[in-house]
Write a structure and sequence with these properties.
This protein is α/β, with parallel strands linked by helices. The chain has helices at about 20-30, 50, 95-105, 125-135, 150-165, 195-200, 215-220, 225-230; strands at about 5-10, 35-40, 60-65, 65, 70, 75-80, 115-120, 140-145, 170-180, 185, 205-210. The chain is built from 8 helices and 11 strands. The structure holds adenosine-5'-diphosphate (ADP). Adenosine-5'-diphosphate (ADP) binds near residues 15, 18, 48, 175 and 220. The site of adenosine-5'-diphosphate has 17 residues, from helix 1, strand 9, strand 11 and helix 7.
Length: about 230
């Protein structure tokens, strides 16, 4: 990955906190600034980037033993979802999954990039450790939702990166409050402020909060990221 200036892992403790949604939208937002951006979907067992980027049927070109990333909304991306049948489960033991991760690092023609975002699977397993140790990460962003069950696991993810000397760029609190379009009032469905408290407690930057917003979910389902569709509130 010698042509990549910044390699940033997007990590979470639990699944379903919006890590992939954030990765896709961050990638699109960075590309909109004119930066060259790549996105690696490292969630081998549950790849969601092809769906969120509206590229379910895309297949990457292969030349020699190098895979060409698929381009969508100005972002070059690879995902296990581009290599398998849409509805088929990925049934692999860990060593096979690790092989794919190594190939996503070494056998993808990433070219010159300003940013490579890596959407990690949830948790602190082999994939996270390998990438943290072998991909020369610039830093990691931790995504969490505000409630205790998510925060406790996010703190573990944060510690894992610290233990392998990867700088934590900060914590983002997702699904932070829901503003009702009908009555105008905000309900803190999963509480609020937990992400900021985690950042403070861990001595890392707090990057901000993203509200719970149906537009974000619908844009993910429709394959047009909310920062591309212009529907972000
Ligand atoms: P993860 O990658 O952490 O498993 P996803 O990004 O797949 O999580 O998000 C899980 C679900 O929550 C998706 O359906 C996504 O569209 C939705 N979602 C994520 N963030 C928000 C948000 N801020 N508001 C509404 N829905 C969201």
């Amino acid at each position: 990955l010698s042509g990549v200036k910044n390699i940033i892992a997007i990590a979470s403790g639990k699944g379903g906190v919006g890590k992939s949604t954030l990765s896709v939208n961050l990638a699109v937002a960075l590309a909109q600034t004119g930066a060259k951006v790549g996105l690696m979907d490292a969630d081998i067992y549950g790849p969601s980037q092809p769906g969120m980027l509206g590229a379910r049927d895309a297949r990457p070109d292969v030349s020699g033993d190098m895979l060409q990333p698929v381009k969508k909304y100005g972002v070059d991306f690879v995902s296990m979802g581009l290599l398998i049948d849409n509805d088929g489960p990925v049934i692999w033991r860990a060593p096979m999954a690790m092989k794919i991760i190594h190939q996503f690092i070494g056998n993808v023609d990433w070219g010159k990039l300003d940013y490579l975002l890596i959407d990690l699977p949830p948790g602190t397993g082999d994939v996270q450790l390998t990438l943290a140790q072998q991909a020369s990460l610039t830093g990691a962003v931790i995504v969490t939702t505000p409630q205790q069950v998510a925060l406790g696991v996010a703190a573990k993810g944060l510690k894992m990166f610290e233990q392998v000397n990867v700088p934590i760029l900060g914590v983002i609190e997702n699904m932070s409050g829901f503003a009702c379009k009908h009555c105008g009032k905000t309900t803190d469905i999963f509480k609020v402020g937990g992400g900021e408290a985690l950042a403070k407690h861990s001595g890392v930057p707090y990057l901000g909060a993203i509200p719970l917003d149906p537009e974000i979910m619908m844009s993910g389902d429709s394959g047009v990221p909310v920062l591309e569709s212009g529907n972000a509130s």
